[in-house]
Amino acid sequence: FFSSRRRHTSYWRDWSSDVCSSDLTLTVPTKDAVLTVNGTMKLKNGERMQLSFLMPILRSEVARIDITPDEVILVDRMGKRYVQASRQELKGMLPKKATFQHLEKLLYAASRPGGKNTLTGSELGIPALEKGKIELTDFSTKPFNLTPTQLSSRYQKVELHELLEMLMSL
Would you call 55 exposed, middle or buried from its count of C-beta atoms within 10 A (0-12, 13-18, 19+)? Predict the structure, then answer.
């Protein structure tokens, strides 16, 4: 009678607030199974969004995607590597709708009561993850700090063409 699934809680976007955050669950079907990773989403209106993916049980970050209107940084914490690409460099790789403004609009819409809180890879502008989905829950407009991702010299910058491979290995 009782579901063990977390209750979807959604808060109407507080238009006086410049921030929005939520928990997230990324689900990606693979050849052998379905991979599910939990994490968090943080968004600062017009400036930056960060998706952080966490290792089960230990809750340590395994990957992060840091998106601004001008660039994307994808960090593989386990492999100590990252891709940093400008919006211009990504222009030919991603669909036209894969912009910061489009993603921001989708995330704010998901935070509204009755909003669509499950987004597919296609809706997010990531065709390689079209069968994947992100479910957003427990939205909040409580203030938080959102700083640019800083990486130590232990991280190796990899080429842009490896971005797709890194996305698929999350």
Answer: middle
Which helix (H) or strand (E) segment is 166 a member of? helix 163-168
pLDDT tens, 69-110?
A: 999 998 989 889 999 989 888 777 777 777 889 889 989 889
Distance, CA of 4 to CA of 73 (rounded, Å): 35
- Tell me the CA distances in angstroms from 136 to 65, 77, 100, one per residue in order: 16, 22, 17
Q: How many residues does the chain have?
A: 170
Helix ranges (H only) for 47-160 are: 87-90, 100-111
Phi, psi dihedral angles at 127 (to 5 degrees): -60, -30
Of 17, 45, 8, which Cα lies nearest the Cα of 143?
17
How far apart, in whole angstroms, are the C-alpha atoms of residue 113 and residue 154? 43
Q: Which residues contact 120 (CB under 8 A, 6 or more apart)?
A: 130, 131, 132, 133
pTM across the whole model: 0.81
Tell me the per-residue pLDDT of 117-154, one tens digit each, with 9 for 90 and over.
998 887 877 766 778 899 999 999 999 989 999 999 99
Measuring CA to CA, how many Å separate 74 from each of 11, 134, 165? 28, 17, 11
